[in-house]
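Sample intake sheet
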Amino acid sequence: MAQIFQELIRYPSAVAGMIILAIMVTGSLYAVIRYPYAEIGAKWYQDASDNSKYVPRTAYPKWINTFRNEDLPETIILHTQDMPETTSVKILDNGNPDYTFTLEFDYPYQGFPTEGMLYFETEYKGKQPFATFTWFTPDGREFRLKNAAIDSSMRYYIDENLDQRQLTDHQIQYKYQPNDLDAAPVLYGLFADPDKDYPVAVPGTYTLEIKVLA
């Protein structure tokens, strides 16, 4: 063993490489022990529910598009509090308010998103507000998402709230899957061009209409 170290000393670059490797291994062990995966995951979503900037779990860093011919979709965040023009209200005959939230966003990509989520923060007395969701594509198709009773603090996962029979009605064929294994099949269906025989998203303006009966 002593002879091996004596040989290594003759090569400073080898010694430097071993030191760097030792630092990397030590840092990796410290990160795993100091920051358990479950704790990081919980903190990630806790920050999201507190209106902190949210990054999808499977999203690549933005700079990766620098090295690609076709850009991957970037994270799109819409806040109704900051966009009063997205909200309208109608008072029904019984005196209850009927809210409509119209969220529009431009989607210039051919690839597919990996995650879609809505966050609700509401204040109500008595009966829970009831919401309906309608998704409109740039080419005029319409998808109805599942209705939901809204809690005071709630997450609504878009990819878990579409009846897959609608994808069949819109001729979305699952035999043509996107190359990105992280892509959620339902989100693929909401964006995919049904007239193509290969997976490509329809670029343009998408609209999510949310009606809430308080």
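Comment: The mean pLDDT is 78. Residues 12-34 form the longest helix (23 residues).
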